[in-house]
Amino acid sequence: MLKNVLAQGNLNSKVASLLQATAGKVHPPYAAKSSSVQSAEDTHRKPYSPFQDTKTLAEYVVARSDDLINWGRKNSIFPLTFGLACCAVEMMHIAAPRYDMDRYGVVFRAAPKQADLIIVAGTLTNKMAPALRKVYDQMENPKWVISMGSCANGGGYYHYSYSVVRGCDRVVPVDVYVPGCPPSAEALLYGVLLLQKKIKNRREGQIRFRK
Fold first, then answer.
1. Around Cβ 174, how many Cβ atoms within 10 Å?
2. Which region ranges are annotated with the description Disordered (predicted)?
């Protein structure tokens, strides 16, 4: 019994000495690797603009002009009133004093040629679909679409009806979907803010410059 204890003690001492001898050889490579990975992460940060590190004056002018144009567009959105069902009541609320969408630069327009946003609020029927497309085609570019409510998103309660289009995205391209039946005015206002964020990140001029 005593011999086994002594043998185990000698083994533990040998393992400890071996670990001390190899400690200096193991740690430096791992430390160097971690520092190299950290430096690589610092150098590959996502830039705000494709021309973040501009080398010419033309690149700088194009990038900053995009920022200026997008700033003007996102703060002067003119939606077209296109209420089709009960969602239109909630759409009216964001223009009332309680929510006051005017403070974000959003002002309703009655003519499609004066608008750059159309809010499809409600159930889109097969007979109304050509009118929606005609109004959308009359709007000037760039233009956006917000699908408001379950009926506009995918038919909603009338999804299996023979006379209802199962989603307005089958007629016009949609940029923002607002869920709900009907969605609240806060939800629609949040959708407008998401659209402003999308407009802010547009880079049309820089893409043309690269071509």
1. 18
2. 30-50
The tens digit of pLDDT for each residue in 15-50 reads 556 556 555 554 444 444 444 444 444 555 445 455
- Residue 189 burial class via C-beta count within 10 angstroms: exposed 0-12, middle 13-18, buried 19 and up: buried
3-state secondary structure string, the chain? Answer: CHHHHHHHHHHHHHHHHHHHHHHHHHHHHHHHHHHHHHHHHHHCCCCCCCCCCCCCHHHHHHHHHHHHHHHHHHCCCCEEEEECCCHHHHHHHCCCCCCCHHHHCCCCECCHHHCCEEEEECCCECCCHHHHHHHHHHCCCCCEEEEECHHHHHCHHHCCCCCECCCHHHCCCCCEEECCCCCCHHHHHHHHHHHHHHHHCCCHHHHHHHC
pTM: 0.67
Q: How far apart are CA 154 and CA 72, in angstroms?
A: 32
CB 96, CB 58: distance < 8 Å: no
- Tell me the domains of the chain and their CATH numbers: 77-206 (3.40.50.12280)
Compute the C-alpha angle 144/149/153, nearest 5°.
Answer: 65
Residue 109: phi and psi, rounded to 5, are -125, 150
Contact 152, 124 (CB under 8 A): yes
Nearest to 85 by CA among 165, 172, 144, 145: 165
